Amino acid sequence: MSSLGERIKQLRKQKKMTLAELAGDRLTKGMLSLIENGKAQPSMESLRYIAERVGVEVSALLDEGNVEELRELLMEVETLYKSVYSPNAEEKKEKFEEVYEKITAIKDDLQGKKYEEIKLLDYYIRLSAHLKYEQEEVTMFDIIDYYERIHAYSRIIECYSFLAGDAFQRNDYKIALQFILEAEQRIKPYEHLIDHIALLDMHYILTVLYAAVDDTLKTQEHLKLALEIAHKNKIYYRLDDFYRFTLIQAIGQGDKEKSKYYLTKLKQHADFTEDKLSISALAFAYGHYTNLIEKDYEKVPGFRKYVIPDRYEKDSFDDSILYKMEEVYAYWALGKFQKALDLSQSITIPEYVHHPVDLSIMLRCFAVRALCYLELGDKEAAKKEVLYAYHGVAEFPSSIYKSFIQEAYEKIRYGKRVK
């Protein structure tokens, strides 16, 4: 029985294609050579790409036996897993349970030797975590070992990212950072074999986590590495995340020129992608810049109409919590305290927000609300709001948002001036 690599090589030669021709722009010639010689295992995405290039079904490349059944199950599981976007917790749980049961039915037969088996076990662990089910038979560290064994190195980063994400949601930023640093060391011997998007992801997560633990030098180091990867390889994925992150840093430092530069970059990216989330984030970025750098508060309320292109329905962007917080801040700065309070009443911090910087920006809104209550003569309500914000940022790194909250606390508790 021929191996997967041998079948790929045979089909390539039948098509009279060189390694470079088959590799195209999705694989390197070196990686394809490793696959053909049985020294690397392609992911399902790469396998589909190779099958398409040689003009056959993926099943023609795979082993006989139960691989086709596993592949069909994996595709079904992936489709179901990726379709779970419901904000309703019960509905989300039901869908996850449906996927979990499909894998549980065959879990005892999954030995972690083939890609399909490993990926299904990977989903099993992720779903166990989502559903808060106890299971000790296989861990994510086992999955990492399995992926390394079949040379699926990019998947190793995804596994460590999952572990880091779990710690991040518990606000264990140092533990989350340790997981990604372990990933960086684990993949170092194989870095030349890992796709650029996976590396970009790793450096982005390191950038965010170093910022969370207030290590400015390391934050800048990994931000620079990530942007170099993106620009060198013409990758637009995550660019708006990087630009937004750098913009917030520049605003925090009061750097007007740098802030304007990254604001322009964000606008260019939003115009290029025409992505609704990018456009919504751009509205917040403009509001944040205008409030904190230009201090042109009159300009912020209703600012979205200048940022969001005419082809979009403006009302569909009204649920942007971050932008609404900027409007609240502007009304407070303009002395329109009741208007700021009224607008802020519906604002809560979403459960998915965990980064200290994001939380600090959002908690600042509660300090603003407290200052509005104070101006309107309700000191008890002011104390309640400012204490929530003050204790919320107590363990966070220093920032302009934390300073604002602390100053608001001083003013409300002790009558001191807030800037």
TrEMBL record:
UniProt cross-references to InterPro entries, sorted A to Z: Cro/C1-type_HTH (IPR001387), Lambda_DNA-bd_dom_sf (IPR010982), TPR-like_helical_dom_sf (IPR011990), TransReg_Diox_bact_type (IPR050807)
The organism's place on the tree of life at top rank: Bacteria
Pfam family for this entry, one: HTH_19
Keyword match Coiled coil: no
Keywords: DNA-binding
Signal peptide bounds: none
Full protein name: Helix-turn-helix transcriptional regulator
Organism: Ureibacillus aquaedulcis
